[in-house]
Design a protein that fits this description.
Blueprint lengths: L1 H22 L7 E8 L6 E9 L4 E5 L6 E9 L4 E9 L5 E11 L7 E8 L2 E9 L1
Antiparallel strand pairs: 1-2, 1-8, 2-3, 3-4, 4-5, 5-6, 6-7, 7-8
């Protein structure tokens, strides 16, 4: 009888261990995100972010391809689910233009979660919205 209870308890424990392993999807920012930013509803700029998690830091690029630029830093506050992303874009003359995006991570339970907030690129300010693809 004890052996049967022990076997049943072990089987249940294994089931929950396997199920929780499938529920894990990694860092909440990891993935490809797309959306836009702009100073007004009519002036929008398309965005694509590719974010990775190396076990310590979130790294990535904005607008992958020939005109991409690396993300300098990503700070996630898991208490309030706020995100701060910093990068340097290039202007037509090749000069660095600082970008600071501050937003809130929403719909955490969804794979297609969103980040919305404020975007500052050089002297231009606006808002942005990204959705994980």
């Amino acid at each position: 009888m004890r052996t049967r209870k022990f076997l049943l308890a072990s089987l249940v424990a294994c089931f929950f261990a396997v199920a929780s392993g499938f529920a894990q999807e990694g860092h909440p920012l990891k993935g490809t995100w797309s959306g836009d930013w702009g100073p007004t509803a009519d002036q929008r700029n398309h965005l694509t972010f590719v974010l990775n998690w190396d076990g310590k830091n979130v790294t990535g690029v904005i607008n992958p391809g020939p005109n991409s630029f690396p993300i300098k830093s990503v700070v996630l506050d898991p208490v309030n689910w706020t995100v701060r992303i910093e990068a340097d874009a290039k202007d037509p003359a090749g000069n660095a233009v600082p970008i600071v995006a501050q937003g809130t991570l929403e719909d955490l339970e969804s794979y297609h979660r969103t980040i919305t907030g404020t975007w500052r690129q050089g002297a231009t300010q606006g808002n942005f919205r990204l959705t994980r693809d």
